[in-house]
Design goal:
Helices cover 50% and strands 5% of the residues. The protein contains 18 helices and 6 strands. The strands form 2 sheets. It has a 4-stranded antiparallel sheet. Strands 1-2 form a two-stranded antiparallel sheet. Helix 4 packs across helix 9, helix 6 crosses helix 8 and helix 8 crosses helix 15. Bound molecules: calcium ion. The site of calcium ion (CA) has 7 residues, from loops.
Length: 398
């Protein structure tokens, strides 16, 4: 559930700390006293609050990781090399075999194919191997007290307390990533509260222990809630015809597969019937990389994490686990990813040059991609919308 975190990072980057002075254990303790009445107002009992908040420490390491998070960036091909490695495919097939009957029941109940659930499990925790061992309450309290993203993390902290109050787990067993993503498929507390299910019937929604059944079913429930269509692919690799008009590779430009096929676009394997519904063309590595025809289920996977790389990672891993071949088109491996500073500069320069990116957040979303595309058109270069270093260099030379 990285999505919520990523959005929150950028939404609040500009906010300064509300609490003066360096953060300390004593400062955290004062902040928790301040939080207590707000938590009780939201239905948390004094017993739940006090049991969960005993002995918390300010965790400077978490704050360091939080500060560094937004700097991290990879090209899609570097990401996919790791996300869809031979080992992850092999382990995915083993996981699929081991949990086959459970996954079949999850598929029947929530309408989400077993390979998709397994692929999310594989990317979120390497099939349960890395679920995170950080105490979630301590981490969320530190992040909420830190104040940079106070509102987001305070909300998650209150939801974590609701989970404890409900008896799903205990403060000691509520472990996860440093940022509060928990269990086999890394649910944030708010997503857990809305979507987690007790699938093994023991009366508790338990995503933290070795048994993955509740976590896998909760992932199915989550995708069903956001509109997963059974039997529809996330997307499929396609070849573009010579002379393809790259302005059509725009998320907002959706057409039935037959309309794309009529333009000379062809799936690399299999067929793309119109029953899959409207699709758009995605070029995650620009004109020099692989092209995909993506369907509505792509947007459902974005509810887990908005990064194209993540969604393609889940989708492609699920295909590979099911026996499909590797992506056939080459990636432009000579290109490097822009740094966060360069992405910010790109947005500033585009906007200053009259190609408004709307936000200056270092995030290469559809608005920025379209601004890049308009700039490329004005320069007479291939308008693939890919935010490369050469685009930035062209802007610098204006
Ligand atoms: Ca259970």
């Amino acid at each position: 559930m990285i999505r919520q975190i990523t959005l929150a990072v950028f939404a609040t980057l500009m906010m300064g700390p509300l609490w003066a002075g360096p953060p300390t254990d004593a400062g955290l303790k004062d902040w928790l006293e301040d939080l207590r009445p707000r938590a009780l107002e939201q239905g948390i009992t004094p017993a739940t609050f006090d049991a969960a908040m005993t002995g918390l420490r300010y965790d400077a390491d978490i704050i360091r990781r939080d500060r560094n998070q937004a700097e991290f960036t990879k090209t899609i091909w570097d990401y996919l090399d790791t996300a869809v490695s031979d080992l992850r495919i092999a382990n995915g097939r083993k996981a699929l075999a081991k949990w086959d009957s459970t996954l079949a029941r999850i598929e029947a109940r929530f309408g989400v194919e077993k390979e998709i659930i397994v692929a999310i499990w594989g990317l979120e925790s390497a099939y349960g191997t890395f679920r995170g061992s950080a105490p979630v309450i301590n981490g969320l309290a530190t992040l909420a007290y830190d104040a940079r993203r106070a509102e987001f993390f305070e909300g998650e902290l209150i939801d974590a307390l609701r989970i404890l109050q409900n008896g799903d787990t205990t403060p000691d067993r509520m472990r996860g990533s440093w940022a509060g993503a928990m269990g086999h498929t890394q649910f944030m507390p708010s997503s857990f509260q809305k979507h987690a299910v007790d699938f093994d019937g023991d009366g508790k929604r338990n995503i933290w222990e070795d048994d993955p059944r509740d976590a896998l079913a909760s992932t199915g429930a989550y995708l069903m809630h956001f509109g997963w269509t059974t039997g529809q692919p996330w997307g499929t690799e396609v070849r573009l015809p010579d002379g393809f008009d790259y302005t059509l590779a725009d998320r907002a430009d959706t057409r039935l597969p037959s309309a794309w096929l009529a333009m000379g676009i062809a799936p690399v394997t299999g067929s793309v019937p119109d029953k899959h519904g409207p699709a758009s063309i995605l070029l995650p590595g620009g004109a020099g990389g692989a092209a995909f025809m993506i369907f509505d289920n792509f947007a459902v996977l974005e509810k887990y994490n908005t990064a194209d790389a993540y969604v393609i990672g889940v989708g492609h891993l699920s295909d590979r686990i099911a026996g499909a071949p590797d992506i056939t088109q080459a990636w432009p491996r000579q290109l490097r990813a822009l740094t966060k500073d360069e992405r910010t500069e790109l947005q500033q320069r585009l906007t200053a040059a009259g190609f408004d990116t709307v936000k200056i957040d270092a995030k290469m979303g559809p608005l920025t991609i379209n601004a890049v595309r308009r700039f490329q058109l004005s320069q007479g270069v291939v308008p693939d919308g890919y935010p490369s270093l050469s685009v930035l260099e062209r802007l610098r030379a204006l």
